[in-house]
Each structure stands twice: as C-alpha cells, then as structure tokens.
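DM between two lab members

TW: hey, do you still have the N-acetyltransferase entry open?
JB: yeah, one sec
JB: this one, 191 aa:
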Amino acid sequence: MYAISLGDDGAELRPLEVWHAEELLADIDRGREFIGRHIGLPDVITDLDSARAYLKSYADKRGADAGSLHGIWLGGKLVGGLLFRVWDTSGGVCEAGCWLEPAAAGRGLVTRGMRVLLEWAFEERGMHRVEWLVSTANEPSIGVARRLGMTREGVLRENYAYRGVRASTEVWAVLAPEWRAARARGAHNDH
Ligand SMILES: CC(C)(COP(=O)(O)OP(=O)(O)OC[C@H]1O[C@@H](n2cnc3c(N)ncnc32)[C@H](O)[C@@H]1OP(=O)(O)O)[C@@H](O)C(=O)NCCC(=O)NCCS
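TW: and the structure you got?
JB:
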C-alpha cells in the first residue's frame, strides 16, 4: 500500500510511520556500526520506545508540513530511510538525508529513492533548493549528492563534534532549474 516502485529489483519507497517501529529498530540494529560512522541516528534509536519516538517526531513534522520520512523496502524488508529533516515551504528550501543498512548499499537504492522525492519536492511542492549536509569523510554520501546533480558549495570547518572528534560538514545543493535541466539531459537515469 502507498508504495512506489524503485525498479525491477522489487525495491519500494513507502512512508515510514509509527507502526513501523519494530521494523525500524531491526533495520538500525542490522546496520548500527555502518550507519553510525558519520551520523548519530543509531544513538537516537536504541530500543522500541526510542524508535517509536523518532517516528512520532516525523509524523509530527509531516502533520505540520515541516518534514517527512520514507522507508526503502527490498524483498519485503525495511533496509533504509530517506528524510526531509528540514522542509521550509515559505522559503522554498529543504534538507534531505538518508541511511541504508550495509547489505543494501551499492545498488543505487538511495539515489533512486531520492530522485523520486526530489522530483516531488521540486515539481509538486514548489521547492527551489534541496540541501545535503555531509561529513567531509563520508565518501558514499558525497557520491549520492553527486549522482543527484548537486553542487558542492562549501565546507563548514570542524562545525560539530561527533564521538569525540571534531568533524567538518560539506554543503551540497541542487536548485530547481538545475534539476529540470538534468532531467531534460536524461541525467536522472545515470549511475
Ligand atoms: C550514504 C549511503 C546511504 C550511501 O549508500 P550507497 O549504497 O553508496 O548509495 P546508493 O544507494 O545511491 O547506491 C550507489 C551505489 O550503487 C551503484 N548503483 C547500482 N545501481 C545503481 C542505480 N540504478 N542508480 C544509481 N547507482 C547505482 C552506484 O554505482 C554506487 O556504487 P559505487 O559507490 O560503488 O559507485 C550509505 O553509505 C549509508 O547509509 N551510510 C551510513 C549513513 C549515512 O552516512 N548517511 C548519510 C548522511 S549525510
């Protein structure tokens, strides 16, 4: 139900909701170390209550049209998530993010899912700019930003402490006209 196919491999994009708490916890448990290398999500989702609370926070955001959360299912199993952490309709700016459990990486699931969501953000919701904030050390995520046609705009040097180490953040973004131009070139099908 409410599923969007991401391709011939059976991958699907669906809203990720409070009733998925057990599935979300299992997904994070399978990827706790991999996912936690650069982002604190596994520290936020540690048990069923915290999984439910995280999902509820996104249900509240969605209720306020201030963010959203989708899951990626592969072979009927929840394997990752795509989020709009920031969703500012008056400013036309949003910030996207993602995770995958390691067994689901390397198949283009996040790129494929994000393309669906960015198309919706730009064309249905009138967003002008989608941002992607990523640790300078997070090569796979930088690869996603590149495949989505984003431009690296700058670096916030040592702007946050993660697990006791000061890390820097790259700011990547794609603008609505750039997104449309890439679509016209057929770039949205590229790997
Ligand atoms: C960031 C993260 C989601 C990237 O995962 P990923 O699997 O590399 O990204 P995608 O799902 O878009 O897959 C891209 C890979 O699949 C390949 N691929 C296969 N089929 C593809 C297709 N149809 N479309 C696009 N890429 C495809 C690409 O070539 C690429 O592989 P490569 O990097 O070896 O060239 C993952 O590393 C992760 O979850 N990390 C932990 C959490 C995290 O850091 N989140 C980001 C915070 S900013």
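TW: got it. Helices lie at 21-35, 41-44, 48-63, 109-124, 139-147, 176-185. The chain has one domain: 4-189.
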